[in-house]
Amino acid sequence: MHPQIERLSNLSFKKERTILGLMSGTSLDGLDIALCTLKGFGKNTEMHLEKFSSHEYNNQYRTNIRKVFSKREVDLQTLSGLHAWVGNYHASCVLEVLKNWGISSKDIDLIASHGQSVFHAPQRWTKDNLLPNSTFQIGDGDHIAVKTGIITLSDFRQKHVAAGGEGAPLVAYGDQLLYSHEREYRVSLNIGGISNYTFLPKKGSKMSAFATDVGPGNTLMNSYMHKYFGLEMDRGASIASKGEVNSALLEALLGHSFFNEKLPKTTGPELFNLSYVERCKAQSGILPISHEDIMCTLCEFSAKAICDSILSLKNDYAVDITVYISGGGLHNPLLYERIKDRLKSAVPVHSFELLGMNPDAKEACLFAVLANETVAGEGGNYQILDNPNICMGKISLPY
């Protein structure tokens, strides 16, 4: 037997596995690296976050990714090269963090790498009946495995697509395994570039858990800041807090048919981008508007899209729910304030920290859970959330 295959086989029988979860989102802010220990699998999964680091991307990384990010036409040589380049870049981040932590790569059983999303094209959005749902993440797992010497699982979203899904959101599996509650109906809300949530019925309920995108999170605000201010984000909502909501623009932004589509659904920067904002400005017929007012309106747009979906969920299911928030949007004080204000006493809102999880690390941890299921779980149908035995991710061996 090949020694790496034997090593992989032995990992499946270990009582405890040490897995590095890597998450890079559409916000292009950085690579989240979560060191997790996992015991068991399926409903017996136990996960503990040991260490966490967020490696902020440099300007070169962002510039390179923007050459292909959410574009229908790209240079294939650039795309092909970036697939390897991102893998090597992420591997370098891993080695640097392990060195800082004083941990040898030999002590890590697996890497679970989400990769860098560059295009997301559900058939529902493309309207192309000849081509299936598709999604594309770059950052080749073989390059990560060879450079770090650690068995790497990557490209998780393709199994979801192959089995009939849209490739997102994938957090539902980890959310249900780790955060379903005996008495509480929960919404696990993640605000990254795009906002998504997992509805978690209380244990024993006849309702089914599901995950869905609900609309933009940080993507429009970040894109606007980059174009007009040369900054990656509106840190502390300093710009948006100086503006006022333009109701005509807000109404136009909320007028997209996506918001009336049946749940679950997915979306991305391919739809919600600055071109969309410009079309909505023209449609609303507004006079010249300040950058501050646009940023304030974009923040309100994200908040209202999120809250409308959650309130609709509460009304449709006629249950009391509690919202727990993770992701970069939690650091936008105006967005967090607007969500809490819109939901008010009808729906309690908390940071995921209340459940004992670092809200910045959650997504990276959940990809570690997916890798654990692939290596140690029983496999099964991705749709069976009541018994989420799953098998996602391509396996790359170091040699």
Keyword list:
399 residues; alpha/beta; seven-stranded mixed beta sheet; five-stranded mixed beta sheet; 13 helices; 21% strand
Description:
This protein is an alpha/beta fold and 399 residues long. 39% of the residues lie in helices and 21% in strands. It contains 13 helices and twelve strands. Strands 1, 2, 3, 4, 5, 6 and 12 form a seven-stranded mixed beta sheet that branches. Strands 9-8-7-10-11 form a five-stranded mixed beta sheet, sandwiched between helices. The longest helix has 27 residues, at 291-317. It starts with a helix and ends with a strand.
What Rg is obtained from the alpha carbons, in whole angstroms?
21 Å
Q: Report the uncertain regions.
A: none
What share of the residues does DSSP label as strand, in percent? 15-25%
Helix-strand pattern, N to C? HEEEHHEHEHEHHEEEHHHHEHEHE
> Count the strands?
12
| Helical coverage, percent range | 25-40%
* Oligomer classification: single chain
Category from helices, strands and their pairing? alpha/beta
